[in-house]
Amino acid sequence: MSRFRHAVKDRDQHIQTLRIACAVLAFFLLFTCAGWMLAPSKLTVHNPPDLRTGSTRPWWEVPPLTVYSFAFYIFQQLNAWPKNGEVDYSAKINALSPYLTPSCQDFLKADAKKRGDAGELTDRVRVVYEVP
Question: What is the pLDDT of residues 101-132, one digit of tens each?
């Protein structure tokens, strides 16, 4: 009988501990929900300046590609000759031909031929660092 003397009291203490733990968890849940509701709904991300929207943009909006940035990327790729300009310039024109108009491709091939005949591209190395 002595082993059951404090059984009811221990059970009540355990139930009280569980109630306190549930109350603490409920408090954290309410605190988290309040923080979620009070969080700013229009978060902005700072990105490189854009003349249309300034330097901030909502986090869910993907910036549109511009013709200028695409053309600048192609220009950088065309003008990077890591080993020999005479070989690399023509290879870059051929590699980027799907992105070039036929008239632009003809112009660049004529430019490469003219520069190659003048000896301007022989053993010439040009490294263009990409600027985002």
Answer: 899 999 999 998 998 888 887 777 776 665 55
In tens, the pLDDT along 66-102 reads 677 788 888 888 888 878 888 888 899 999 999 898 9
pTM over 0.85: no
Residue type, 35: G
Kind of pairing, strands 44-50 and 54-58? antiparallel
Q: Which helix (H) or strand (E) holds 18?
A: helix 7-38
Collapsing DSSP to helix, strand or coil, 50 comes out as strand
Number of CB atoms found within 10 A of residue 78's CB:
19
Beta carbons of 78 and 128 less than 8 angstroms apart: no
Q: Which helix (H) or strand (E) holds 47?
A: strand 44-50
Other C-beta atoms within 10 Å of 97: how many? 14
| Among 81, 100, 99, 103, residue whose Cα is nearest residue 90 | 81
Distance from C-alpha of 55 to C-alpha of 79, rounded to nearest angstrom: 30
Report which of 90, 76, 91, 87 is spatially closest to residue 127, judged by C-alpha positions.
Answer: 76
